Amino acid sequence: MSTFRSHAPARSRASVPLLTAVLLAAGAARGQEAAEKPAKVEETIFRVYEIGDLLRPPRDYPIGGKSDPASPAAPPAAQAVPAEAIRDLLMESVNSDTWKEAGGAIGMARVAPSGTALLVQQTADGHTGIAAVLAELRKQRGMNTMISSRFYWLLLEPKDVDALYAAAPQNPAEWRAMPVVDDALLARAGRYCQAQATCFNGQTVGIQTARDWAAVTDLTPIVGTGAVGYDPTISIASSGVALQLTPQFIPSDNKDPSVVLDLHSSVTETRMPAKKQIRVSATSQPAGRLDSPMNESDAHALGMVERPDTVRQSFATTVRVPVGKRVLVAGMTLQSADGEQKPRNLYLVVQVDAVR
């Protein structure tokens, strides 16, 4: 029986380990080269962002007339926003892991020496995100939206008011739209007062027209030997109309935008009566009462207390009104200051237009 064995040449057997060692060495060299090659750094861009309009809130101008006790209190003043707050918001919202201030390697944000700008170094994608955040902040801030409003105080007959509510559209859910005042009724109605105001979105403004009188409303006696004097208290009596408003624009996707209005309206009528008042004596003798009007010189010589007659219609509300429509907001009966004229029905009609 023959046995056949195959033997590889000695040179071939020796070359296998050598080839393996060469391949391993080449692979290790390529791995070391890849490890030593620096990672590609994304290109950054330096830009300056002006943010002064986001730091300064709109200044409010509420009614501050001390002569009208029905004047609304001033709302809390809007607080300025520090530039650091805007910077921190951007760093938290855009590429938050890239900022050097947060342990990243490429992003940088600093407040400019002026305090109203940000110095930012970021990637192109990061700058796109920053611009989007700032645009949304400006949209919410309201400084890019101006709102113009017109106000009509109308003397309406009860039948006119009933007709307005009857004509308002009604849906199956049993609610009615706000009554709209058309041009015909506006021209026909007695126009007691008219006003217009334009302000920023969210800003509080006040408008007021009034006539003031100085009236002696009290006398404090000062008694001496055989004589008495009087220290007068001077007060202000007013007649006029005052309105304070704060509008807030509400955008809508259905093309029917509206505005929320904080309103405070006050109508005051004052009648100064004839000088037929209480007479006070210039001595310590008892005072009497005048039964007939006195002239100005007699009044100052004897002293007097004035009692003006005042009637006021006042209301405050928050209401949402459609943009571009003249709607009836509120009203009530207004008595006459002298009590001689018949009561009138005074209503406030509002028309709001948002201007960007």
What does this structure look like?
- With 356 residues, this protein is of the alpha+beta class.
- Helix content is 23%, strand content 38%.
- It has helices at residues 10-36, 52-55, 83-93, 124-141, 158-167, 183-188, 296-302; strands spanning 45-50, 108-111, 117-122, 146-155, 190-200, 205-224, 227-250, 258-271, 278-279, 304-305, 309-322, 326-334, 344-355.
- It has a four-stranded antiparallel beta sheet. Strands 6-7-8-11 form a four-stranded antiparallel beta sheet, with no helix packed on it.
- A hairpin with a 5-residue loop joins strand 2 and strand 3 (117-122).
- The model is unreliable at 1-14, 65-71, 284-291 and 297-301 (pLDDT under 50).
Placed side by side, the strands forming the largest sheet appear as 5-4-13-12
How many beta strands in the DSSP annotation?
13
Q: What order do the SSEs take from the amino end to the carboxyl end, as H and E?
A: HEHHEEHEHHEEEEEHEEEE
Helix content: 10-25%
Helix/strand-derived class?
alpha+beta
Low-confidence stretches: 1-14, 65-71, 284-291, 297-301
Compute the CA-based radius of gyration. Answer: 40 Å
Give the mean pLDDT.
77
Distance between the termini: 109 Å
- Overall 3D shape: flat
Share of β-strand residues: 35-45%
The major β-sheet equals: 4 strands, antiparallel
* Tally of separate helices: 7
